[in-house]
Amino acid sequence: MIPPRVFKLERYFAKYEFCTKHLLCCSDCETMTIKDVLGLTDNCDELTRSLLDIPLGYTETTGDLSLRKNISRLYTNIDAESIVVTTGAVEPLLLFSITCLEPNDVVIIQSPIYQALEEGPMIRDCRILHWDMVDNEANKCWSFDIKDLEKLFEQNKVKALILNAPHNPTGFNPTLTNFNRIIDLCRRQGTILFCDEVYKFLDHDDHAEHLPNAADAYENAISMNVMTKSFGLAGLRIGWIASQNKQLLDKIASGKDYTTICNSAPSEFISKVALDKHKVILNKNREIIRKNLEAADQFFLKHKETFEWRKPTAGPVGLVKFKKGSVAEFCDRVVKEAGILLLPSGMYDAEHLESFRLGFGRSNFIEVLNVFDDYLTSINY
């Protein structure tokens, strides 16, 4: 295997996240305390006692059965036996690459992409092909051209397609028609579809066509999700994969014996409670996003000479184009002079886009946006 590269995005956050006053690029939704989560229920006191009585021994490798049953309710064709609970999202990404891919396998990956989605196949010495994002100037949005993907499939025998929908950092989500075309391309070759769905359930238009989970729609797909992003519970470090393909699941579960072996018992318990009330949590986070996007629209209209707002369609992140030179230099200046953290596109190996990631899933977004507005006004940008 090839040694992994430095994880640029995570090193950037390690440098700034906990010492910068204002974060304007967060990728997760508003978080909650343990008290908040237990308080969503009618039996908070009983659950609190149960939490305090949890044994801190080993847990089942694939995850607590009752938690897996709760997770399965997010799907239509997936049962508890078709789920493996993991530590966050990076663990299953790496385990999938190590256990299910071979050197020289052809793997298609969207670009730009969260580095961990690409790093696993790179470590495994796979042949990586990029499906590049398109800047749709006419419609003022980011998108992916399905015809470009079709060409890649026509020219190659593809072992795996790694899809991120909704997409980080652009907030793009394919149409249901194109999602079905993606599955059709994979099915023709028996290609594994590894779908990162950590921003699932956060469509901005309640009346839009909702994409199914990949694992529900395709027998050779792996759906990955976490409590971190849409649910805002990153501190639990609980994620999972779901698939109808038991052979793939077994390989990944077996590989877990060499990583975390099992999950945190208290985290599994709290995740189970949160998923019992997942609709309440998701409705709250969608409302925060809705209000924040309205504020973002007004902000970027005011500063249209400086930025191009490519409005996302799902999730709590978007990619904003900077029109006045180097976005890396701009972000560096903003964090030093205003104490506001933005994430330049170079952290996605996409320096050429001259853009930065905006995160609008947290309740203090408008407050921080006003600070950013004041700063831009003060320097006459």
Automatic annotation (TrEMBL):
It holds the Pfam family Aminotran_1_2. SUPFAM superfamilies: PLP-dependent transferases. It comes from the Eukaryota. InterPro entries: Aminotransferase_I/II_large, PyrdxlP-dep_Trfase, PyrdxlP-dep_Trfase_major, PyrdxlP-dep_Trfase_small. One of its GO terms (molecular function) is pyridoxal phosphate binding. Residues 57-359 form the Aminotransferase class I/classII large domain. PANTHER family: AMINOTRANSFERASE FUNCTION, HYPOTHETICAL (EUROFUNG). This is Capreomycidine synthase. It comes from Acrasis kona.
